[in-house]
Amino acid sequence: MGNTQIHQRPIGRRITPQRAQFRRLAESADIGTVTRAQLAVLAQSLTCTGLINGTESHLLVALINTVPADSFDRSGRLIVFKSNQQLAFEIGRSVGRVSRMLSSLFDAGLITMQDSGNYKRYPIRNGDGEITDGCGIDLRILIVRYAELDELVRQARSQKKARRRGLRRYRGALRNARYALAAAARLSEDSLSRLGARIERVSNIVGIAGKASSRVLRRATALLEWLIERMMQLPRRSAEAQKTQNMTCPYVENGMHKQITTPHPFDDSSDQRRSAYAEQLSSPKAGSASKWAFEESLRRRRSEINQPRRLRHAMVALQDVLRAVPALKTYGFAPTTWADLARAVPLMCRFAGISEDARRRAVEQMGEQQAAVAVAVTLEKYDRQEVNSPGGYLRAMTDRARRGELHLARSVFGLAARNSMEIRH
Length: 425
Hints:
The protein is mainly alpha-helical and about 425 residues long. It folds into 3 domains: about 15-150, Arc Repressor Mutant, subunit A, CATH 1.10.10; about 160-230; about 320-425, no CATH class. Helices cover about 55% and strands about 5% of the residues. It is built from 20 helices and 5 strands. The radius of gyration is 32 Å and the shape is elongated. The N and C termini lie far apart (about 95 Å). It comes from Rhizobium meliloti (Ensifer meliloti). It holds the Pfam family RP-C. This is REPC protein.
């Protein structure tokens, strides 16, 4: 008979090169630099990174809360000696599930483990009763990797916010494009048919918007906004920019007025800047200018109207704003000039519940005229019950204006198209 070979039961948890590296990394922890509360908050936030799921996060938080708060001082030991059975009781899972989750946390580099020969967890104390070592679940690697993991959480949150922002913009652009298609009466049937087919094609390519990538949503939004501009027959952006650069007369078809009449509109030098009113007094062609150029609000200095720099807004007429915001008439406002609309802004803010600070920031960032349009749009959406927090909505528009991402003209045209379609039906 041959010799029977008896295989001994493997002692301890399976070790891999990665787990060995995590153990070495945990030994370099600087105890005392991170508190228990910081680790607990981090463990709850790690689910957004995809490293662990909700149940594993619950187990990790339970492990962190097991360690006494004073153990996070420089002389503390971040080792948990609870058994799998006790941990399973605390989080409401089976013992086998806890064992598998501990292995997953070990592989993710969120804990390290040192098993004894009989798989028990116990501390090793010196003569004074202080814990010097032990076999259990070591949390020191969380301190070593705290900055790295916290940055991962921040990036995941930032990406999620960007994706939500892109999703909202895409859905708004798609809605505005369909409203604009229904209100574009000046285009031929053939043109409307082609534009409608392109809008639906973009929608079909995106598919379920909630599952589309941020890149696809951005490209689809840009295409839809370009289609809206075509349906509204807006001038090309390059031509519009050239027109803005060369314009020295305040006569504009839709009543907009350029406040800076020098070739260097954004320079800080005050000796190169003149008010529009002063320019008209010395101009021999002032008699041919529109009456909009001589409004009282435009005769003030640039510092008084807080015109922002490095911002270029698409031009909208006051009549477009009135068509887009029927709530102005509902609340008793009947502005005939931009100055009337600007003077009505404080009262509109009180009706909508917008704070003075939010209004002031909007004026500082966008200027009086654009801020008045933004407040009017906010009032309209508040009247339609589409905005629950008008003050927060205006602050968000101000932030987008600061980044150069605010397009008030598109909002005005979209609301005007929607109102036209509702009246038609």
